Please model this.
Amino acid sequence: MAGSFGATSTTDEVLEGVNLSGKRILVTGVSAGLGVETARTLAAHGATVVGAARDLGKAKGATEQVRADAAKGGSLELIELDLASLASVRACADGLNAADKAFDAVICNAGVMATPQGKTADGFETQFGTNHLGHFVLVNRIASLMKPGSRLVNLSSSGHRFSDVDLEDPNFETTPYAEFVSYGRSKTANILFAVEFDRRHKGDGVRATAVHPGGIQTELGRYMTDEVRDALIKNINESQPAGAPLFSWKTIPQGAATSVWAGIVAPADAVGAHFCEDCHVAEVVDDPGFRGGVRSYALDGENAKALWAKSEAMVGERF
Model:
């Protein structure tokens, strides 16, 4: 089953015949796009979904279909989470810990992309602070709720190939800011966080992986102009080997499929500490002209440990 899916597989195809009754799954970013679809298919297959979002009013409207499609005892509960505020992250984690209900999976789906230069409520560069540090604190604070056999899925991106993390200047205090370099750093951090979390927790039966959903037209691209988007696609196509297929957009159900595959269907040992795309484990590819694959720096264990230590220092907590 785990090896029979690909780039065009949808969430419901990946979960065909899978009954998630009795499973409890946390999904961040359920106010639009991939987060809503991930929550929908999980609830439709019987899971109790805890959906986190910054704007609960928007999330309630966006998840009407989630509640409509819920079956086999599946349900959706919404909770507030602003990843750009550690006060909000810690309050969310405190609430989950107080409820003391275990999770079978945590899918860190929320994020921002190519934003103008800015800072989070805690003074971190917007993309690194939101995409990485917010999830880093949330997941580590609720790690005790992740039962043996559970999985952490971090949504990264092929954009990790834009840049490795910069642990000397994570907030662009001395480096000139560039939207996609910043995005690349944060998406590499998502992978490295999964690598180190997996190393620390696999002995307890908890595994972690990172995924690239593919190119999907969602609210994530709100800061990209048509010109920037067209130039990016043109560059992708021109850098491919002769005969390679041209870039094509995925639908939202196709984009969310890899998250569901890696978090529910694929063998844990196959995806743990790896990077997945198109419903399979990606190969390490350091050729800058190749569209698929994962950069070696994003899976490097020492790099992952260093990022973990730097992240702890930045947020003022040890995990």
